[in-house]
Amino acid sequence: MDRYEVTKKIISVKVAQKMKWADIAAKIGQSKEWTTAAMLGQMTLNLQQATVAKELFSLTDEETAWLQIVPYKGSLPTAVPTDPLIYRWYEMVNVYGSTIKELIHEEFGDGIMSAIDFSMDIQREADPKGDRVNVVLSGKFLPYKSY
Q: Which sequence positions are flagged as catalytic?
């Protein structure tokens, strides 16, 4: 058994039970964005969160233990994603990445935006021309240090 097998089981139960990520998140006690990442194998759950997941997804003790182990991060199967939605994010970074980098450096200096001290919020935004996806990414700025 490995974390990938646990993820497959979680998704299978979610589909069979017609669960929503937001409802799962409310029971886990975290945001829908963090909870979804965790259930997809990208975050580590603490004992309390894993116990809730065990109940929600009818997990065994071994499967529950896998939820508490630091995962190998990065879930894309190929260097260039083939799923159209994920590919568009790849495209956005290819087109706007240098602009984002330039503007962050101009505003904050030489450093990076953390994906560890990080939050994300995804909402539907009504628009008469068709609903929009509003994604807010917020990461702590970490300056490079001289040594």
A: 88, 91, 114
